[in-house]
Amino acid sequence: MTHDRATACLKFASLFSAFIGLLMAAALLGAQPVMALFLDLIHLPLDGTQTFSSDSELVLGAISGGLLFGFGVMAHQVTTAVYATNPEIGGRILMRGIVSWFIVDSFGSILAGAWFNVVLNLGFLALFIAPLLEARPSVRAAS
């Protein structure tokens, strides 16, 4: 993968993350059924027992959505302002951020009984890790 293609993929991953964060925060504006379905999905089986309606659930959705939106914006800025011109430093920043998120989110999900969220987290992880690894000069030279 070329550096330009990796940069484009990272920009997409960043914007996608920000979009999902906005979707989570939108629960406050009436998207509770979408979040309830998401919670039902990560707590398999799909049985309709999860809700997203209490004040505590809504505020945690707002906080989580805001953090994910902020992460997406930050990752986009790191991609455009750092990674695009210095892939080694930008890639290291993005890699450490996404791996840190993955470990904490996935471990917490397992402890909460939402193991399927780890599977979904792998998708987010791949969106960032794949272009970072494939565009590295040492990886291309070894191929």
List the helices and strands and how they pair.
Elements: H1 3-25, H2 32-42, H3 55-83, H4 87-111, H5 116-134, H6 137-142
Oligomer: single chain
Helix content: over 70%
Provide the gyration radius in Å: 17 Å
The SS-based structural class is mainly alpha
Number of helices: 6
Question: If you average the pLDDT, what whole number results?
Answer: 90
As residue ranges, the low-confidence spans are: 139-143
**What is the distance, rounded to the nearest whole angstrom, between the alpha carbons of the first and last residues?**
11 Å
Globular, elongated, flat, extended or rod-shaped: what is the shape? elongated
**How much strand content do the residues show?**
under 5%
The helix/strand series, from N terminus to C terminus, equals HHHHHH
User: How many DSSP E strands?
Assistant: 0
Q: Major sheet: size, sense and barrel closure?
A: none
Summarize, please.
This protein has 143 residues and is mostly helical.
